[in-house]
Write a structure and sequence with these properties.
The protein starts with a helix and ends with a strand. The protein is elongated, with a radius of gyration of 23 Å. A hairpin with an 8-residue loop joins β2 and β3. Helices cover 33% and strands 26% of the residues. The mean pLDDT is 86. The protein contains five helices and six strands. It is α/β, with parallel strands linked by helices and 218 residues long. α1 runs antiparallel to α2.
């Protein structure tokens, strides 16, 4: 049983690393480490099986090993499908101390994350009014406001994810559902929000897109 449990978890780690499952949970730089851990577990399972071979009848395995094997089978059977909007709602949106930007892309080439970092480093809404915007992200509902378009930034994995979003002025009657991935083209405008000026993307073209293969950004 010990060998089976180790082998199952080795398959989980190695298979998740090779299949792209980890792209939803962990930054790509850590994927080789997870894959290597899976290989180690498979080697340990083989050694355990070889050592137990020919020893005859042995006492039953503790319940913990059975439970571990059952959990591994569930992980293999059920693909991960995290709700990024729920996660974003329950995570602080503080980026911490940002370094000063030393290079700024033209407006139409900035990603959503580029825009958020630029607006935080140079928070004068009037500087960007009328700029072209081409961004993509998932729909993040806001309490008492229209949904934003957002991304998740991670240092390691979803456990330390930080949401970043841009306010969007959606066309009348078009309020997108949470978690949908959209590509938005429009222009940057300025509006009053609770007595403060802020930038808002006036959406002109909206297209549904599939979730990116690697949706988490560093």
């Amino acid at each position: 049983m010990t060998a089976l449990c180790l082998a199952l978890w080795g398959i989980v780690l190695l298979g998740s690393s090779l299949s792209g499952r980890l792209d939803l949970l962990l930054r790509g730089v850590f994927h080789p480490l997870v894959g290597f851990s899976g290989v180690v577990l498979l080697v340990l399972a083989g050694a355990q099986l070889k050592g137990a071979w020919g020893q005859g009848r042995r006492p039953g395995a503790p319940r913990g090993w059975w439970l571990g094997a059952a959990v591994a089978l569930l992980v293999l059977a059920i693909p991960p499908n995290p709700s990024f909007s729920d996660l974003a709602t329950n995570r602080p949106a503080e980026l911490g101390q940002e370094e000063a930007l030393n290079f700024v892309l033209p407006p139409a080439q900035r990603s959503l994350t580029d825009w958020v970092r630029l607006l935080r480093s140079q928070p004068d809404p009037g500087l960007y009014e009328g700029d072209q915007v081409r961004i993509s992200g998932f729909v993040w509902p806001q309490k008492g406001d229209q949904p934003q378009l957002a991304r998740l930034l991670v240092r390691c994995c979803l456990a330390d994810a930080t949401p970043v979003g841009l306010p969007v002025r959606w066309p009348p009657g078009q309020v997108p559902k949470a978690d949908r991935w959209l590509a938005v083209r429009g222009t940057m405008a300025v509006e009053e929000h609770y007595g403060q000026k802020r930038n808002v993307v006036v959406a002109e073209r909206i297209a549904a897109i599939p979730r990116p293969r690697r949706p988490l950004e560093p």
